[in-house]
Amino acid sequence: MSILVVGSVAFDRITTPFGTAERCLGGSATYFSVAASFFTKVNLVAVVGEDFTDQDAAIFKGRNINLDGLQRVKGARTFFWSGEYGFDLNVAKTRDTQLNVFADFKPKLDAAQAASDAVFLANIDPDLQMDVLRQCEKPRVVALDTMNYWIASKKESLTRAFQSVDVIVINEAEVRQYTLEANLVKGCRQILALGAKTLIIKRGEYGVLMITRDAVFAVPAYPLENVFDPTGAGDTFAGGLLGYLASCPEASDRELRRAIIFGSVLASFTVEKFSLDRLREITLADVQARYREFRKLTHFEDFTE
Amino acid sequence: MSILVVGSVAFDRITTPFGTAERCLGGSATYFSVAASFFTKVNLVAVVGEDFTDQDAAIFKGRNINLDGLQRVKGARTFFWSGEYGFDLNVAKTRDTQLNVFADFKPKLDAAQAASDAVFLANIDPDLQMDVLRQCEKPRVVALDTMNYWIASKKESLTRAFQSVDVIVINEAEVRQYTLEANLVKGCRQILALGAKTLIIKRGEYGVLMITRDAVFAVPAYPLENVFDPTGAGDTFAGGLLGYLASCPEASDRELRRAIIFGSVLASFTVEKFSLDRLREITLADVQARYREFRKLTHFEDFTE
C-alpha cells in the first residue's frame, strides 16, 4: 500500500510565547509524510530550493518515504512562512509569506507516484489539485485539504475539487465560510451533497468531527499540559489519518474512526515541540500507547437500568 | 436520595435569529430542577414575585420536585433577564437584568432541605453559596457553579467556596479568568489544588472535560442540526449531572462519566426549543435513547496489531 502527497516543503520562522524558532523545517507535505510513514509507504511530491540541504532532508531518511518526487531547483529558494502565536495558541498571525520555488510548482507524476493506492492533495490551488488528480490511476481513496484563501478566491475550482474526492479534511470556519451556514452539521450536509463520502472537520483543541451519509463520529482532542507550537498539527493529523487508512483493506466506518484517533494522536505529539522535533523522536510504540490513553480518556459505560 | 438546589427562578426575554420569546420561564434553579428530577428528588430553594403564576409553576408539577422552598414575595416582581443571540449562538449579549426579588434573596433551609444528600449551589454570590452550605448537614456531594462577574468582583469569597465543595462546574473562559493561565489543563490543576475532588469544564458546543486528581475524561457535545436557543444549557447539564450522581451510591469515576453523559444529553434537548419547552416534552426513555446515541457517536475500537 502507498500514499501520494502533493504539497509544500517549507522553512518556517515561528514565534510563540515560549520563544522563536528561526528557519525550522515546515510545510504541509513534510508533516503529512512523516506522520503517514508510521503506517504506509509515502510518495512525496514537492519542490524545494538550493537552500534545502541534505541535513534538512534528513527528516525523511530511515522512514518509508520515497523522495523521487522532491524536486530541487537550482538558484532558487524554498517556500518560506513566518507566523506568530500569542497567549491564545489557537490562532496564528502570518507575518510573512515568500512563495519562492512554490510559485511555479506544477507537479508531473512518475509511474510509481501515479499508481499510489491513496492520494492526499494538501492545501494548494484547487486547479493544481485537479491537475494532479487527473494524472493518478484510479486510487482507492482521494482526500484533500484547503484553506480560507481558496474559498474566497477560487470557489468554483474548489467546488470541482470537492466533487472529485472521497474525503474532505477541512476546519470548522472553512465549512461556515464555504456554505454561509451557521449550523456546522447543516453546513457539512451541504458539502457532502456535492459528492464526497466523508467529511472530516478539524476543530483544533476541541478535536474532530466526522460526518458521512450514515454516521456521525465526534472525538475530543487529547488534552495537553504543554502545547508549545501548534504549527503543522492539521497536516500531521491528515498524515496519520490517511496513512493509517491507506494501510487498511477498506475505508470502513470502523477504520475511519481508528484513523481519526491515529491522526489525533500524531497531532498531539507535533504540538509538544517546535517544528517536527517531537515527531522525530517518537516510535510507533509511542503512538500506540497514546492511542490507548485516548481510549481511557473518552471511555464511558452504558447505563444500567 | 435527594438533591438541594439554590439558585434563580426567572422570567427571560430571549431573542435568537429564529425569533423572540417574551417573558418565558428561565433561571438556573428552574433548568436544574427539571433536569435533575429525571433521576432523583429535588428540593428547590428560590424566590419569585407576585407575578409568578400557578401556570408558571406548572413546569414543576408532576415531577419529583419539592416546592416548599419556592418563596413567593407579595408586591414584588420576579428576577428578569433579557438576552440576545446572533448568528453565532455561542455568545449571549445581555440586554437587561432586573434583580427584583432576587436582590434580597437570603435562603433559610428547613430540616428536609438541610438534610439533602447532595447540594448544588447555582451561580449566585459566593458568600451566599457559603451561607447555604453552612446550613446543610453533611451532604454526600456538594457542587457549585459560578460566573465571570464573581471572579472579577469577589475572588476571595469564591476561593473559599472552591475550597469547600467536592465538584466545581465551570466554563473554559472562567478557568482562564480565575487562574490567568492560558493552558486549560494547567489552569484546572491549579483550581483542583484548592481542594475540590472534581472539576467539570463546560465547553458549549464542544462538550465537556472532567479533570480529577487521577483521571481526565473528555466528551464532545451531541452535534445538533437545530440549535434554537442555548439559554439554560449549562444549568440543564448540571441538573442531569448532579441529579444522576445523587441517585448513585457513590460518585466513582465510572458514575461521574455516566453523569456527564446524562447531563450532556439533557442539555442537548434544552437547546432544541425556547425556554424549557423541549424539556417539558421528553421522558426518561427519550433521555436514555439519546444516551445510547451518544455511545454510537463517540465509539471507536482498539487497534489490531
Structure, explained:
Two copies of one chain form a homodimer. With 305 residues, the first copy, chain A, is α/β, with parallel strands linked by helices. Chain A is 36% helix and 26% strand. Chain A has helices at 28-36, 54-57, 111-114, 126-135, 148-153, 155-163, 172-179, 184-192, 233-246, 253-270, 277-281, 284-298, and strands at 2-6, 10-16, 19-26, 41-49, 65-73, 79-85, 92-98, 118-121, 141-144, 167-171, 198-202, 208-212, 216-219. In chain A, a hairpin with a 2-residue loop joins strand 2 and strand 3. In chain A, helix 4 (126-135) packs parallel to helix 6 (155-163). The termini of chain A are far apart. At the A-B interface, helix 8, strand 13, helix 10 and helix 12 of A face helix 8, strand 13, helix 10 and helix 12 of B.
Outline the secondary-structure elements.
The structure is a homodimer of 305-residue chains.
Chain A: E1 2-6, E2 10-16, E3 19-26, H1 28-36, E4 41-49, H2 54-57, E5 65-73, E6 79-85, E7 92-98, H3 111-114, E8 118-121, H4 126-135, E9 141-144, H5 148-153, H6 155-163, E10 167-171, H7 172-179, H8 184-192, E11 198-202, E12 208-212, E13 216-219, H9 233-246, H10 253-270, H11 277-281, H12 284-298
Parallel strand pairs in A: 1-4, 1-8, 2-6, 4-5, 8-9, 9-10, 10-11
Antiparallel strand pairs in A: 2-3, 6-7, 11-12, 12-13
Helix pairs in contact in A: 1-9, 4-6, 7-8, 9-10, 10-12
